[in-house]
């Protein structure tokens, strides 16, 4: 504990080299974050399902998914989530190895192409396979975009930008019923959702590589061009940019010499506890986040209203999380709201089955899950150095996907053992809060670049 505390104090005192050159926030950082975060809109559209009953033509009626074939209807969503799981691993690795920009552009191109292909799927198998690859592409956009934002912002503004980054996802979630209301056939609905992401092609002209990643791999001249342009936008001096970046690169390279890193680096002695704890927390976050949202959607007979409400609840929660993690820190916020969310579910299992009581507790549970989800995104990105950060985010996102895949099966346990889902959804987040106590606080610390910086 003393060693951890000493390391944290030293890290806090060490000034972030990039923040010293670029400033903690400025026009350049705001432009990057505003444009990159737009990709989260499609993440909300792809991931957040609603009740298909209002549709005039569904995949169930299209391909006769009834009786013995009825399980195939929900199987497509499981396949999508599995694709997101695989994409978390693949794109996390590719981004750390080949750069944030190129990996991001590949993922958005695949997202757009697959989005237009799905409405014209001739049969169930083709539809499901396309959804699997759509999940992979969606995961790539999510993982890489968040790391880009965290590597752009200075330590003083990572909390704010990390939380605001989630808002487009929530807007996407809230707009799902709007698309569903006007497009009642599954193919026209999918086609309608495929059109807006075309604007992502603009990233080919606007997006630059992460200077922090370029410096971490020794490509100082390329980083200098980007950083000088950014300094000009932020009205900061550019005279010693290349000299300062060269010093940063030398420091990183000297401490990270050796073969290129892969996922095994996450299990080195200095990182294995953090990796294990993050995987547990993200798995349970996925379990509770999707579980709570599923519960909220079941409290109203109108799926259009319930899905929109489940999304709307998360906006004030996200804004609240900015204040919470800035003043209380990442660790306390995560522990507090994991625990509070679990308590809400446990209480839900013992109070009388009254609409307003269950709605209030369910709403509070969704708010807690949203705050935790926003916080652990930032927390995880700060726990790992630049050279493995995207792989850490990828493995964590994979863990969340496992939790989201488990959530429907846990909910269905109520058909056989009514009290078991309450027990699992209630005590799992409390356990995650206890696990979080093993991690150090990262509030106000410098973003580590090499394994030795940690």
List strands and helices in order, with pairings.
Blueprint: H1 2-13, H2 17-22, H3 27-36, H4 40-47, H5 59-62, H6 71-98, H7 100-117, H8 124-152, H9 158-164, H10 167-182, H11 186-194, H12 203-206, H13 211-216, H14 220-233, H15 241-255, H16 272-298, H17 303-312, H18 314-327, H19 330-348, H20 355-383, H21 386-412, H22 420-436
Helix pairs in contact: 3-8, 4-8, 4-10, 6-7, 6-8, 6-21, 7-8, 7-11, 8-21, 9-18, 9-20, 10-17, 14-15, 16-17, 16-20, 16-21, 16-22, 18-19, 18-20, 19-20, 19-22, 20-21
CATH architecture of the largest domain, by name, is Up-down Bundle
CATH superfamily of the largest domain: MFS general substrate transporter like domains
Structural class: mainly alpha
The overall pLDDT, averaged over residues, is 82
Main pleated-sheet profile: none
Number of domains: 2
Spatial extent as radius of gyration: 22 Å
Q: How many helices does DSSP assign? A: 22
**Backbone shape:** globular
CATH class of the largest domain: Mainly Alpha
What ranges have pLDDT less than 50 throughout 5 or more consecutive residues? 1-14
Helix content: over 70%
CATH names the topology of the largest domain as Growth Hormone, Chain: A
Helix and strand element order: HHHHHHHHHHHHHHHHHHHHHH
Q: Based on DSSP secondary structure assignment, what is the total number of beta strands? A: 0
Distance between the termini: 15 Å
Percent of residues in β-strands:
under 5%
Domain Major facilitator superfamily (MFS) profile: 32-443
InterPro entries: MFS_dom, MFS_sugar_transport-like, MFS_trans_sf
GO cellular component, one term: membrane
Protein name: Solute carrier family 22 member 5
């Amino acid at each position: 504990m003393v060693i951890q505390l000493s390391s944290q104090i030293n890290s806090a005192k060490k000034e972030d080299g990039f923040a010293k050159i670029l400033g903690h926030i400025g026009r350049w950082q705001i432009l990057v974050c505003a444009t990159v975060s737009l990709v989260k809109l499609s993440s909300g559209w792809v991931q957040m399902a609603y009740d298909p009953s209002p549709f005039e033509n569904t995949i169930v009626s299209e391909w006769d998914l009834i009786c013995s074939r009825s399980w195939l209807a929900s199987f497509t969503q499981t396949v999508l989530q599995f694709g997101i799981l695989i994409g978390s691993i693949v794109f996390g690795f590719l981004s750390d190895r080949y750069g944030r920009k190129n990996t991001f552009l590949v993922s958005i191109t695949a997202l757009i192409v697959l989005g237009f292909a799905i409405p014209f799927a001739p049969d169930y198998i083709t539809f499901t396979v396309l959804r699997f690859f759509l999940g992979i592409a969606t995961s790539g956009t999510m993982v890489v975009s968040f790391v880009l934002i965290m590597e752009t912002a200075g330590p003083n503004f990572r909390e704010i930008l990390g939380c605001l980054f989630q808002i487009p996802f929530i807007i996407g979630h809230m707009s799902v019923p709007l698309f569903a209301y006007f497009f009642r056939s599954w193919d026209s609905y999918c086609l309608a959702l495929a059109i807006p992401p075309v604007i992502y092609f603009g990233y080919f002209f606007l997006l630059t590589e992460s200077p922090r990643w370029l410096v971490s791999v020794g490509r100082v001249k390329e980083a200098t061009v980007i950083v000088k342009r950014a300094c000009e936008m932020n009205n900061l001096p550019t005279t010693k940019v290349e000299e300062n970046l060269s010093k940063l690169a030398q420091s990183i390279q000297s401490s990270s010499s050796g073969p290129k890193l892969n996922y095994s680096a996450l299990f080195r002695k200095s990182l294995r506890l953090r990796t294990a704890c993050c995987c547990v927390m993200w798995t349970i976050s996925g379990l509770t986040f999707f579980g709570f949202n599923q519960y909220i959607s079941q409290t109203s007979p109108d799926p259009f209203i319930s899905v929109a409400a489940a999304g709307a609840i998360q906006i004030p929660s996200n804004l609240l999380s900015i204040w919470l993690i800035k003043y209380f820190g990442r660790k306390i916020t995560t522990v507090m709201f994991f625990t509070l969310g679990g308590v809400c579910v446990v209480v839900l299992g013992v109070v009388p089955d009254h609409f307003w009581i269950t709605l209030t507790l369910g709403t509070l549970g969704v708010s807690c899950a949203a705050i935790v989800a926003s916080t652990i995104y930032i927390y995880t990105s700060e726990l790992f150095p630049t050279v493995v950060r995207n792989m850490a985010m990828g493995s964590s996102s994979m863990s969340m996907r496992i939790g989201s895949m488990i959530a429907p099966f846990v909910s269905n346990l109520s058909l056989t053992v009514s009290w078991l889902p309450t027990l699992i959804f209630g005590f799992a987040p409390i356990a995650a809060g206890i696990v979080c106590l093993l991690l150090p606080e990262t509030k106000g610390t410098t973003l580590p670049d090499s394994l030795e910086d940690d």
